[in-house]
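Complex record, two chains
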Amino acid sequence: QVQLMQSGAEVKRPGASVKVSCKASGYTFTSYGITWVRQAPGQGLEWMGWVSAYNGDRNYAQNFQGRVTMTTDTSTSTGYMELRSLRSDDTAVYYCARAAKGVEPLGYWGQGSLVSVSS
Amino acid sequence: SYVLTQPPSVSVAPGKTARLTCGGNNIGNKGVHWYQQRPGQAPVLVIYYDSDRPSGIPERFSGSNSGNTATLTISRVEAGDEADYYCQVWDSSGDHRVFGGGTKLTVL
């Protein structure tokens, strides 16, 4: 069965960076991409971007351009999302989800990774 | 950029029908996906491409999309349906995924 297992909770200082991982299993990793979505406390879902596990193509939301990097490691079937120059309003649960391309639904999600940014 | 508008909250009595709307400019021309999110859990896809149901989702969940409004309909509402519901489309002009603000469904 398809599973996406994310890394654990992180606490970071403002200005630091965080790298969240998403290990996939149960399907051919390179046939899909990884989408990243975040959710601030008490808020809605916010799309951050997508990376293809096939060829590394990336597409980032404008809000995160220049601050985020999404990558995949096909040898371990793992996706990564690195967010730099963290601010307090980056405190959120970060989710990965599987999608082949933008128009397709997000049928499988990771369990979420809480990133807390505080001085 | 493309905007999806959802009412913040909808309340319905058990056994009744809940209709959750998602408004957007000519949204009828786009494929709409709906996600259910219970407190403390990851979102779950309940309807995709306007009206298709993933395996394991009860037939009580259905969807439609026309004009400027997409609708998620939940028939015979149960206490377990209480959750936040998000609509989502792909904005091809901006080449990005867009979520609505979400609707909290309360079962009275």
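Note: DSSP finds no helices and nine strands in chain B.
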